[in-house]
Design goal:
heterodimer; A: alpha+beta; 9-stranded mixed beta barrel; globular; B: about 280 residues; alpha+beta; 9-stranded mixed barrel; 9 strands
Chain lengths: ~250, ~280
Amino acid sequence: MRHIRLFLEVLLVVFAADTVALAQIAGQTVPRTVDGKPDLSGIWQVLNSAAYDIEDHAAKAGVPAGAGVVVGGEIPYQPSALAQRKRNYENQTTEDTDAKCYLPGVPRITYMPYPFRIIQTPERIDISYEYVGALRHIFMNTPHPRGPIEWWMGDSRGRWEGDTLVVDVVHFNDQTRFDKAGNFHSEMLHVVERYSFIDATHLNYEVTIEDPKVFTRPWKMQMPLYKRIESAPRVLEYYCYGFNDVYTLPAGR
Amino acid sequence: MRFSGLLVAAGLALAAPALISAQSAQRLTPPTAEWTGPRTSDGQPDVHGSYAKDWIGARGPNFDLEEGQDPEEMRATGRKPEDFPKPQMVRTPDGRIPYQPWARQQRIENRRNFFNPTELWHLDSNARCLPMGFPRESLDQGTEIIQTPGFVFFEYPYNSVVRTIYLDSRAPLNDRVKLWYGDSHGRWEGNTLVVEGRNFNEHGWYDTYGNFHSSDLQIEERFTFVGTRMYYDVTSRDPRVFSQPWTAHVEFRKNTGNVDEPWETACYEGERDTQHIFPGKTPPK
């Protein structure tokens, strides 16, 4: 009898606390650095099929079906841009960065199906990606260098807004795409990433995309990032351009 | 294609023709001592910062760990081989890498192939913008050290490479997993970071001209920090290729002034030379 009463009391407390309590629980479990910022250090990875197509898509050979990561479902292309997306899809096996093994740009590098390690210091947050060994520097609280500059991965400048890491990225080239389905941008691309903890092992990753040459308005992607919680996880190597015609010892040695 | 250090080599030839000596067996790194400087939040000696390679201290550029001289450079400047200081990175009595006899022949062939390439793999991997691998990257280039609890990271801005050194006691990687940059486990002994590296593939060389190792390579590296200097000694063990372990030595200076932000390198994306050297053998870009 006493046990049942205790159970009911606990249940009541839980119901009363509702989402506020959940938010507090989440807040308490967020790891923090010595300077009190949320500590994003560790290895993270997505669990989705955005690398193939960031919009909702059915399965086809070699492509898993998937719910898209575009908030609202559709990318607001200017009508003139749709023909380019179609051409991109048709030539993706030769012209896409994933076919060429080039740096894939931001935010695409995040949702490539490979892990990445966040290395956090107060002045700089670096991200070491397994895919093509990409290394990205997010310089904190500093302005972008003056352009025009066209980089594959853009120029990333970060700041903390409360417990959210906000990264402003500009200075892209027009060679990277958002996925293998041909979704694309121009060199006018402006990306704002937001990283915030959902709980200790999940981040909410939200990205605002702006490109006045290609889209009618800014739009967003959103997806969770999952922490790799197995013991001693590693970021290994995926240098896809280093698989063929490399030096090896003579046969028998 | 890139030839790292061409300008540095020229500068070195002008600035330091007299720094030639044959004391290769002499110990250059001060003995390991207690660390008396600041420490990181997890108790490591705090050595974070940017380090430039001391080319003078290295006694020569490492186009070739044993020979040093760069024929391209000699042709360009009209200088003779004797004008170039002999490198003293290889700390054996004769400054040579102790190859097994077959491996010495292989190394000579690698060098010959590099200058008369008929296959893509005759070229140095770095010339094709492929990874350098370790220990070449750490012998060749300056680095930035970043420390977080449980880790030391070495970032190499030249190739935009990050090396993760695990300070925890995690299990080693299975031997069948081979990597350009290997798997690195470290520990602090006073002012010295000792790193055990293994799981290397055999695609990366020690230098531009074909000093090589097999995928059995295991290295022990000692990074000794004294004042603003970082002394680096790397011992290579590879019983398939070398007759005995051997050590290479390079020194670095900490940059105490402003350091440029590391910006994008994107070497492979811009690489256009191999398709002209080997038409049809590389994908068009």
